[in-house]
Amino acid sequence: MKRRPNPILKPTDPITDPKPTQREEENKNKSFFLFSSPKRVLAFCLVFRLANALLVQTYFNPDEHWQSLEVAHRIVFGYGHLTWEWEKGIRSYLHPLIVAALYKILAFFHLDTPWFMMKAPRLLQSIFSSFGDLYLYKLSRLIFNERVAQWALFSQLTNWFMFFCLTRTLSNSLEAVLTIVSLFYWHSFRGSPNKVPLASRKLALAIAALACAVRPTNAIIWLYVGMWDLLETRCRMKLLFCEVLPIGVLVLGITCLLDWWMYGSWIFVPLNFLKFNFLSSGGDYYGTHKWHWYFTQGFPVMIFTFLPFSAVGVYKSKEWKIFGLIAWVLGLYSMLGHKEFRFILPVLPIALMFSGSSLAAIENVYPADSKRKISSNFHMRCPSKLQLAIFFLLVTNLPMALYMSLVHQRGSEDAMNFLAREAVDGKVKRVLFLMPCHATPYYSTLHQNLPMRFLDCSPSDENGILDESDRFMMDPVGFASNMSTNWSLPSHVVLFDSEEKQLKGFLISHSFREIKRFFHAHFKVDRDLQASVVIYAWTGK
Asked: Angle 321-185-197 (CA atoms, 0-180°, nearest 5)?
């Protein structure tokens, strides 16, 4: 029996829904090849972060070298300096062992040349970072939708601080990646924790425990997430005693075994870390800030011009639980006297996710007047409001990212790279660093077992005792004169130009002459302007 045609519609008339469903919109967005599959998103992020790692050529924080690379170098090659933190047992070997595995591979294939020793660790971290980008995209898609996820990824990749910091070998960078991955698998933010698949939640707990092992302070994040879920779940005892505790104890036990193996005795790192940083305020030795610093300076500088977009995204999305996590972390860290940008790095991607929500809202509120064809199967809307927003974000973040990654404070790394090349040719015999402690990389870059000496700045058990670094900065000439009475004569002396002005006569009188000068910075940070790093060599005359 034939169906009679509808007399109202012609056979050729399209039957359309004036309001396409969210799924149809997402499918249309996915037609662009980059977002057609998570594998393509990961591939793009991997290429981007590899290039990112190669572009980072500046010195940011001593821990990037002294708490990861230097320790790993000592594990694999038998020499490298262990700072006072390792004597007190407040650092876990978990993170350095990852880098040590990389060094072992380089040594096995005889690739431990100056270039590879300098670049390979950051390239390894760039691989981890690309997974962080992917999972931020997936988490944003889970909480919001596909379009927000795309703009969140844009925000993550173009934010100047993420570009500057995420591929560095800081434990905070790995912590940030693990946090995003574990939040995706936990994903109770999207609804009731009772609806989270058991396998997914267990994986999230394992990754979260790993993040806490890398940085014990990551527990601050999971204390917030855990409190919410314990309040909302129906099976609190089951969650706590059948999932959280067994997985946490298992991961903690494995890391304790690793530390026992490396330290040679039983060391409970999380407890030592807690005692030093929270109970005794040991970190205050390296400087303190006002309680509001993270709110008024630290986090605004990190998120930079994405801040207004993230604020609008929070307000319009009404995702107060997720925003509460950011406020919680900033608030608790504000209670500590010693503050650093990198400490709050794990919550920066979450804030950038809200920026993605805001940009997606601009795209929807201001529909395009026309469509510009990008490829044969994709059309991208380019509303003027959105174009202005993108232009504003790019023009403010990209120059900042490139300047901080390529220019600001690069002298420390350039000087050590130069010494590493000279050491290969046998021109370097002994190095003395007359500069604030930990101002350059060390054996992990030089990669030659030569005598080196830097000014110590370990905290003293007695109040009011100045360390070597402080005494030198107060009186460079007097300190150097006293040191020269019983020093082993170095073949090279490395110092900043700010101290060179006072020490030039002393160095010349001891038969040293300048052989290389490297640009370092245009403006001062903590001390007087350190415009360049200067290397003096002993002439033997």
From this structure: 100
